[in-house]
Every structure is written in C-alpha cells, then in structure tokens.
Amino acid sequence: MAARPRSKENNVDLIMDEILTALEVIKSKLPNGELKIIQDKIESIEDAHEQLHEDLKAMEKQLLDPEDGIVVRVNKNTDFRKKKEQDDRFHAKLIDEHKELMSWKSTITKIVWILFSSVAGIIVMMLSGKMK
After folding, report:
1. pTM (2 decimals)?
2. Rounded CA gap, 50 and 59, in Å?
C-alpha cells in the first residue's frame, strides 16, 4: 500500500515549524554581548591596519624621496667616500714626492757644503801660499 501523500499545507506548516525551531536554536546560541566585543575588536583592527598603511607610506616616502631620501643620502655618502679615497691617494702621492724632494735637497745641500768647504780651503791655501 502506498503512503498517503501529504497535502501541500501540511508540508509548508512542517517546513515553517522546522525553520522557526532552527531560528530559536540559533537565537539561544548567539552570544549577547560577545558580538559587540567582536565588532569592536574588528573595528580596532581596521583602525590599526589603516595606521600601519599610513606609516608604511611615510617610510616609503622617506626611503625613496628623490630629493632627500635615505637612498639618495647613501649614494651621496658613497660618492663622498670614493672621492675621499681618490683624494687620499693623491695626497699620499704628494707626500711621497715631498719626501723625495726633501731627500734630494738634503743630498744637494751636503754637496754644496762640500764644494763650499773645498773652495774655501783652496782660497785659504792660495792666500797662505802668497803670504810667504
């Protein structure tokens, strides 16, 4: 024997009863104050995210600013150091040349004194030889 089909009204009433029962279960399980706390926390997270985004933009600008950013400063510093190293090599070369010149001068001074002494000695000998 086949079961007697239910009427459409019975089906709709049963479905409505099931939906109402499910809604009551959902309402009873929902936390009352916890939803507000969760919502507040989500809003604070959104605010923190916006602040973090602004901070990142400021840091990016500070790093990559073509006028006075950190990258530009580092490049200027590197150029300065390279120039300074070249200048230091130039100064070292000048100092070496100065030392060589001072050594040459010392040698020439000694030679001049030897020549002067010899000439003075010869003059003295000539003068002393004529006097006798």
Report:
1. 0.37
2. 14
